[in-house]
Write a sequence for this structure.
């Protein structure tokens, strides 16, 4: 959200996250931002966000799911065309950092819940952390992202200087899903945004700042997990239909070489694989692809008999994602809650900038009352809001914005 005139589009070229901003000028009256008495229409906001959405930097990456982030100096990876005007609000949606494989050989595929500790035969290398946890690469990635945000929003030029040097809960708000890797990723980003030395004197040695990360039980998180079956059963039903289409199922079943290699890759018998329904088979293939993504990120070597399927696995994963999030045309159901919260946040900051007394009261009174800290609906006018979720969180939002998956 910006004030002032602007020309052109604002692009944040940072692969793992979506950084949304709004710029206000005379031409924005139609979008409902200039007139304080008009309510922001989420559909109009969606159109605006779509125009300023980051370019799909991962699109041309050979393995788009390789958990890549900018490395040591993330500022060099982001050549951002800054629009003139003063930044007053920013909302960022990010996936978690690099993790170990999400699961071992899945129990549902083996048909025995007690076999959940079984490993794929190709999973021979020990991982530094347990399955599904953030790795040292993930720690570095998230901290680097936070450092880049600090350079942009705290140490940047006047038009982008959004936050004070030290954490202020009236300015910064963080929300994560209730999963270890997303919670720790959020902490890593915040540690880069507010590093040691910015905390209160006389507190923790090194003046480390402790910043709250809000969450809700995962089973109840419709804000950052909108496509889950519990929150959108219609999407689950539609997804099952999409998996049966030629675009997905036929593409898989036509690869005889891969299907014949599945027993040696997974350790499952051919009879068990043949007995799987489409959804279960897709999950099994997704688990293999997930393993290979993590192995490539951590330089775990595999023979040609395994690596020859990498391109196929990536294309298959892309087809599944497109079929589920794009071809079902249910974006408004999947990411609508989060899009609405972002609209509320932009409205709240706009009203604060206009000096509305009720918003000033809300900022200093209501938003500080016990029980209101979570701010799920986005009614508190925080300057910077960080949401950290999963690839599905990003897919949900892109589907809501009608951006190609």
């Amino acid at each position: 959200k910006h004030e002032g005139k602007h020309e052109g589009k604002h692009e944040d070229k940072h692969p793992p996250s979506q950084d949304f901003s709004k710029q206000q000028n005379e031409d924005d009256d139609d979008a409902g931002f200039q007139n304080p008495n008009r309510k922001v229409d989420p559909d109009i906001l969606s159109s605006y966000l779509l125009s300023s959405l980051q370019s799909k930097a991962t699109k041309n990456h050979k393995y788009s799911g390789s958990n890549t982030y900018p490395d040591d100096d993330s500022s060099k990876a982001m050549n951002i065309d800054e629009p003139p005007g003063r930044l007053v609000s920013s909302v960022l949606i990010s996936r978690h950092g690099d993790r170990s494989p999400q699961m071992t050989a899945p129990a549902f595929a083996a048909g025995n819940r007690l076999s959940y500790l079984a490993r794929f035969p190709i999973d021979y290398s020990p991982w530094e952390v347990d399955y599904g946890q953030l790795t040292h690469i993930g720690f570095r990635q998230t901290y680097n992202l936070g450092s880049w945000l600090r350079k942009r929003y705290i140490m940047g030029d006047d038009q982008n200087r959004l936050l004070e040097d030290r954490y202020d809960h009236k300015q910064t708000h963080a929300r994560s899903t209730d999963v270890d890797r997303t919670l720790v990723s959020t902490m890593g980003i915040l540690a880069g945004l507010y590093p040691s030395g910015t905390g209160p004197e006389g507190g923790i040695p090194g003046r480390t700042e402790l910043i709250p990360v809000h969450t809700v039980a995962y089973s109840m998180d419709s804000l950052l997990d909108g496509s889950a079956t519990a929150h959108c059963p219609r999407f689950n039903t539609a997804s099952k239909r999409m998996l049966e289409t030629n675009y997905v199922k036929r593409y898989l079943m036509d690869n005889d070489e891969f299907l014949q290699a599945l027993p040696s890759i997974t350790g499952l018998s051919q009879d068990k694989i043949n007995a799987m329904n489409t959804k279960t088979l897709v999950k099994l293939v997704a688990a293999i692809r997930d393993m290979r993504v993590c192995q490539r990120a951590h330089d775990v070597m595999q023979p040609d008999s395994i690596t020859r399927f990498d391109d196929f696995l990536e294309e298959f994963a892309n087809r599944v994602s497109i079929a589920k999030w794009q071809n079902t045309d249910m974006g408004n159901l999947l990411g609508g809650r989060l899009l609405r919260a972002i609209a509320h946040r932009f409205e709240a900051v706009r009203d604060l900038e206009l000096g509305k007394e009720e918003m000033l009261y809300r900022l200093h009174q209501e938003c500080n009352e016990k029980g209101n800290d979570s701010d799920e609906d986005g009614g508190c006018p925080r300057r910077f809001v960080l949401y950290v979720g999963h690839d599905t969180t990003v897919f949900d939002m892109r589907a809501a914005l009608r951006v190609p998956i």
